[in-house]
Amino acid sequence: MVPIIISLICGVVGLALAGLMARYVLSRDQGSERIREISAAIKEGALAFLGREYRILAVFVVVVAIILGFIPMLGWWVTLSFVFGAVCSGLAGFVGMNIAIRANSRTAASAQKSLNEGLRVSFRAGTVMGMCVVGIGIIGLSILYFAFHNNPDFLKIVPGFGFGASSVAIFARVGGGIYTKAADTGADIVGKVEKGIPEDDPRNAAVIADFVGDNVGDVAGMGADLFESYVDSIIATMTLGMIAVFSVTLGKSIVPDEATAWFLPMLVAAGGIIASIIGVFLVRVGEKAEMGALLNALRRGTFSASILTAIFSFLAVYFLCGTQGFGINIFWAILAGLIAGVLIGESTNYFTSYAYKPTLNVSESSQTGAGTLITSGFANGLMSTLPPVILVVVAILVAYHFADIYGIAIAGVGMLSTLGIQDATDAYGPVADNAGGIVEMSDLPPEIRERTDALDSLGNTTAATGKGFAIGAAGLTALALLLSYTQAVGIDIANFNLLSPHVISGILLGAMMPAIFCAMTLNAVGKTSFSIINEVRRQFREIKGLIEGTAKPEYGKSVAICTTAAIRQMIAPGLITIVSPVVVGLVLGPLALAGFLVGAIAAGFIIAVTFANAGGSWDNAKKWIETGAFGGKGSDAHKASVVGDTVGDPMKDTSGPSLNIMIKLMSIVALVLAPVLAGFTGLL
Amino acid sequence: MVPIIISLICGVVGLALAGLMARYVLSRDQGSERIREISAAIKEGALAFLGREYRILAVFVVVVAIILGFIPMLGWWVTLSFVFGAVCSGLAGFVGMNIAIRANSRTAASAQKSLNEGLRVSFRAGTVMGMCVVGIGIIGLSILYFAFHNNPDFLKIVPGFGFGASSVAIFARVGGGIYTKAADTGADIVGKVEKGIPEDDPRNAAVIADFVGDNVGDVAGMGADLFESYVDSIIATMTLGMIAVFSVTLGKSIVPDEATAWFLPMLVAAGGIIASIIGVFLVRVGEKAEMGALLNALRRGTFSASILTAIFSFLAVYFLCGTQGFGINIFWAILAGLIAGVLIGESTNYFTSYAYKPTLNVSESSQTGAGTLITSGFANGLMSTLPPVILVVVAILVAYHFADIYGIAIAGVGMLSTLGIQDATDAYGPVADNAGGIVEMSDLPPEIRERTDALDSLGNTTAATGKGFAIGAAGLTALALLLSYTQAVGIDIANFNLLSPHVISGILLGAMMPAIFCAMTLNAVGKTSFSIINEVRRQFREIKGLIEGTAKPEYGKSVAICTTAAIRQMIAPGLITIVSPVVVGLVLGPLALAGFLVGAIAAGFIIAVTFANAGGSWDNAKKWIETGAFGGKGSDAHKASVVGDTVGDPMKDTSGPSLNIMIKLMSIVALVLAPVLAGFTGLL
Asked: By CA distance, what is A404's nearest residue in B?
């Protein structure tokens, strides 16, 4: 019981920090009338979207909850846990976004004073998000423990929480992702390409929708995403650990007792929260900081948090299991995950930053046009799968060597334990991006825009690292969930072999799912941005004086189009993710479902990394050209790079990150269904 | 023995038809002085490339042969079989290309008479290729039987033949693919995009290289590719069948005896040859045929061949095993493969032809620029994985239901048995393409060019169907090889389960391989076309009077650049394909290698289908716009579609088809290595 109280306290401390940071942000000056006006429009649009999204999600949650309740092998406690998970996830996204939409104007106003002031406000706003995610996550899980740890169905109830969190996350990520990229692409194509006006120009009717998108997609969507990564990795480890104590199929006991199985991941995560808090406070620079110093400050924060997490994990292991045998072995597994996570983040940076050769090559290929640029960026994305796959494989082998399959699961917790600060550096980006847009629209002097651009570009670097890290963690977590599933459903090892055509079929179908999912989300962005483009073109055509700057566009119409389209189109990709494992499990049986998950995880991991890094390198190839390379802004090379960026945007910000959730959600659906499927052989 | 003699006779009949068709083609008029001159330049370039390629391959084959010979568990008979397979594969490609480079001028000359004359010459040239592939394939395997069927190591010797064929195929496909797409893209970018001159304009220095590329890539490369598909599917079935007779791991006998295991696939293939020959003779149209009639004629040929193959297969099964139990069951498995193959071809056509909605949507998205066009084409490619995966899964489940894992293998033979005519309709395309180019360069009247364009466009339709079919067959064949491997290496079912971290690691690494392979081949095309672009630009800059048409470009220089670059860059992707399964098998052990193959097959299948169909739909979206849609030629929509085509070209003609070979080659390397790996547990 004591370790859970420690976790709970760490969670509360995390939330307290979030409160402190929020108070700081809200106490800042909101800037001029014009700034406040724009910020209000963004706030209105973002809250309207979230309101509609959450209403749809509420219906979905109620329907699924009722279904779960009426399945005899599951029951109403699973329902309750599912609803609780969904509410926690929605809450994390809501609180985070609420501070972000208030921080953008304040960052813009602070940037008028200095670069460092701007960083402080935006990073603290990001910290609110990061701390809310980890705080609510660990508190939610602690409550679950207090409420149900004596319930004989505990093992069925816990995954329900993850299922709820993941369900909300997939819709939030996909819906937000469609919104943000459709608005962004639509605004860019008509504004930058067709009309030749700058980005974020107030005459562009889609510009407010673009800002709203940053909040609902990159803040609220990502918050729900990271929340589910975080709680799923812990849940996977707990369930696997509890099953492993009595494992019949494994034929041996990996974890000494149920309490350890439960307490260990919670304590590692709690240590990560404290490490993240310390890391946040290490993000400090002098008053007249340069870009390099800012980046170093952020990296100092994340690296310190990683090292501290290693130390705290060792203490947690020592406290719970001693340093002999099991204890020290578990520590090595955690360390393997932690190190792999950091290195995957670095490799992402290598493949996407224009400081290194791969992205420089991509930008060089812009000289022969958009076609060659796109081929070379895509090739770069494909090649970038090498380090993450090797690192995950090494982490798996090391973790398994030391602590069997439980090691693989806890390595995932190790990787995710610094999420508090990782999310803070991630969520700070869109706040800075919004602030830049507000500055552009407020006719502030160009040096202010330069400052917010610098903050934005810093955010891009940290976002790239964060993305790699999120994908790596998703891979390990999904694997851990899959392992839990195979244990929970009681797959007989002697049956689980490749010669079974059901397993082969499952793998092929599973590998297909990420492709179908990406096709749907890419098309959704395409369709929505098509509507936006037509709307912006219409306004330029019909509103007299718009292009001359004497009339104002109707921002609200673009916002309404994005909202409606994104919400309508988030439903199908979300539903197939939830329904497909159910169908495969019932029709082809639990063995095929395990194969299905394997196929989906392997293919999903590859596609997610490819999309994220191809998108990142096109984006930065464009930025490199904008610094003056190959003719700079306005050159043919630059035009080619804008096309590349348009292609990469939905890949890296809609489809790619949603895949992370998809592979975990499918795995957790399987885990939740395990009691239903146990002993069942499928209809075919 | 009798069935093999029947197969041998069918093979000889196939070659006889090839000879007849070749005589017909060679007897045609070669056209004007100018036509002959251009054709001679193409011939020279193509033969020079093939000469250099084969010299490199000879070195490779000798080195691998020696290594195989010195491995104690394999020995010199395996070496001999390997060399024999390599030689047969090279021969099929060489003979086919030799007739293609002679048929282009004759097609151009015949097209001056009528559309139908043009079709006849080019289709008969394609038939030479198709019949050589199947004839040489089945004769080679028959010789192998006569030479070794009493040898106790027979089961080790047979896969050597496939290994030889696949090794040649991967280099020929990759090298040819790099050549053809680099020349094509390079010529298009400088010619069409920068200089605004038509395709195949004689002032373009890369135009001859482009024609050469069609021959070395789309004829010789594809010939080697289909040869290996064909023999590998038969070999997989034979080895699996022979192992299955005595299978310990399966615990039951699937195939009555070794003779049946060997004879059955040979007879089914032999029936397919006769069916293809009949199909070829059904490709007839009246003298004044329209496009629609031509297409119907080709489809009548392929469909009839499929139906006849089904009938002949039934006879083969009846002849060998009767119609009770095993016999009729095997027939259902063959039929499942055959039908799945036809349907996969049709689904490819649906996703890539502008007669249907998906490609029309892609071309519609060109209105908002190259970026949205590329996203929508890629999404279409991803979505197009749905039917092939479902069809392969259904074929697997049906085949397994009727004839266990042997059924899966023989379903692959069923799918590939109509290869003779499929390859004929495929190989006819590049001949027609070349003829069109020659017409353009010879200042013949525009109506002749219209005729060759019609032939070319017909070729594109049949190529799309053929590509889908090739990918489906590759998937099934690779699975059959994998199953043979697991049996040959004696994987204990109880060990082969997903909870093994080695298997998981293998799957992840395997899924990564197609991505790395595609990255390398895409980059190779990019680099080579970059050199070509610079060379063509240089010639326009330095050769006075070139753009005015008073001076001639130095075609030879572009040809030399393509040759050198393609040969240099085909080596690395080929080598990693061969070396990676060896490394995984030795380091992580035979279980991990099985996982590795599963991952590679699943991910490779998805990526191959995506690349082929995305590329096909971009190509046809461009063609649709060229018919006048969205502003027609020269419009912004058209420019966007040219960019899409540039992106799709290396995907659909270099990386995509090479993946088919890659997944089979890795599987056959594993199968050849099985005696070495049996009982081994890996270094880690």
From this structure: B501
